[in-house]
Amino acid sequence: MNSALTFDFAPLAPWPLLLACAAAALLLTCLGLWRRARGTLLRAAVAVLAITTLANPVARKEDRSTLPDIAVVVVDESPSQGIAERQRQTEQAEALLREKLGATENLEVRVVKAGKAAAETADRDEGTRLFSALTLALSDLPRHRLAGSILVTDGQVHDMPAEIAAAQDVTGAPVHVLLTGRPDERDRRLVVRNAPTFGMINQELNVTLRIDDTGAAPDEMAELRFRQQDLGERVLQVPIGRDVTVPFKLSRADRSLLEFEVPPIPGELTPLNNRVALSVNGVRDRLRVLLVTGEVHAGERVWRNLLKADPNVDLVHFTILRPPDKQDGTPIRELSLIAFPIRELFEIKLNEFDLIIFDRYRRRGILPTAYYENIARYVQRGGAFLEVSGPAYATPLSIYRTPVSEVLPGRPNGTMRTEPFTPQLSAIGKRHPVTAGLPGSVGENGQPNWSRWFRVVNVDLTRGNSVLESPNREPLLVLDRIEKGRVAQFYSDHIWLWSRGYEGGGPQGELLRRLAHWLMKEPDLEEEALRAEAKGGRLEVERRSLTERKEAVTVIRPDGSETKLMLEEQGNGIASGRLPVELPGIYRVRDGERETVATMGAVNPREFSDPRATPAVLKPLADASHGSVRWLRDGMPDIRMVDKPTRSAVREQAGRNWIGLYRQNDYVVTGLTLTPLVLPLAMLTALLLGMLLMWRRESR
């Protein structure tokens, strides 16, 4: 608490009137002096005395309470601050600033943490928003109390205004920058210049990349590792500092992950920006399906209707109406049937089909043995084959008695059951993505709410997974993998009863849709799969398996550190877990057998586009505010309180080993006393005496 004495006026008349009177008195005085009139000076003295009395000068005494100045410290906690020794430098600088500023008399300290993305914005590529944090901290702070701002950062700030004048208007006091890191840092980084987000399957696509290296020699080459999901790794030698185009092809629909990596170099700042992961969605041009119906039957149109309903399917359908053994004497000229182009379908164009379906097909001498061998090789090389068995499968006319048996999982034992039964999911079927969670699979009594079937061909399974079965555990639908291909086999042809709504029907459409997609190797229907996705500040991991597994998965962060994540069973063969994540980059997840990756943030995050510490971004702001920029590796500067600069003292806000903050000397008035300097009675007496003297002098 202190006091201050000042002088002021409490006029008894409006100031415009007093000023007008003073001007008139001055004019008359000048006129009197020019004409040498008697009593001019005495009249001037009386006018001054009258005007002074009306102005009423007073002595103002203020009781003042001093307000502390405010210093703002902004600490950068962005991911790049975790590189090398920067985090240690930042923590030490913050502790010393709190100590030194806290010990400064009449100074309040506000520390603001900035640069760490919130969970809801973790996926956005906003970089380090240090200036926004400073602006927010100053928004409720009186500028006439701001002593200055101190920024502890590596200098990589991505929200600086384009105009430094605008930035200075926001701060209004010295901005000092304390830089972490070193001025001689070297870093190698991988930059994606152009990448597709989707592409057609089996068509060549290109990714354009560049390796930037601040310390590389001219024409130096580097090793680029390219990993494509499910297709292994390629190693390329590419030049540094020039755009490189890497071709690739997508082998499946849905999302495919591409990883690119360059090995770190000695003394490199960080390897976090040496890797990038891209997600490219594969799109099928059109799905080509060959459907061969061995004989006309009630469920023939089930498969045709399903496939024709999809505009992305090119369906080639043949129904064998007139086998070679049918001899009824009909003249050839009266037949309107199309010859079955077996050579074109099963030799020339077989590999152009994505899926082959045999519906109640039986051996009738139409296909030579070599063509059955072609079908088996087609599956082994990656094709998809679906066989819907009819009664003939249990007879000597069974397709199992051909070379196709190499890829069929069920060997007929020659018997068939024709009693009514309700299909149900097997233990594996409850976890397999083709059948897990099918509508109506669990009714009120625990049994499926599906209509009955009336026929099943009995088989002995040699391999594969039975996902649909009868109450007597007789397989109804078996799925199997044969080398690179896939096979599905129905041992009943009565699924058409579901499509007709018999006894309420069943999930025929959903089951067949999933089955077709599984045969087409859709990633979402893989029975053994590990998936990970980073979003909202969390890493979400999902594992699908046909067996319940208790072991945890290993999560490898972008900085190389590892952590264990235990997954919880969610039902239908799915186990999932969540892990909070903050660091942008590539997260790798392993469960011992499978591995997947997830990317947090953008492909080329601004935070690591150039992680080298630099004074270039913030130096214009520091210079404009009469602040300074210095490296923490040179030591922590002293802090001094200085008066606000004048035009001749703008260089006095920082020195070789010290930085200055303004001494604002702000205060609030807690008491006010006004003392008049003119006594009204005395002034009235003086005015009367002056007028009397003026009358006496002029009356002579």
Automatic annotation (TrEMBL):
Record-linked PANTHER family: BLL2462 PROTEIN
Entry's transmembrane regions: 12-34, 41-59, 677-695
Is Membrane a UniProt keyword of this protein? yes
* Name assigned to this protein: VWA domain-containing protein
Keyword terms, alphabetized? Membrane, Transmembrane, Transmembrane helix
Q: Which SUPFAM superfamilies match?
A: Class I glutamine amidotransferase-like (SSF52317)
Q: Which InterPro entries match?
A: Class_I_gatase-like
Q: Does the keyword Ion transport apply?
A: no
Provenance organism: Ferrovibrio terrae
Q: Which superkingdom is the protein from?
A: Bacteria
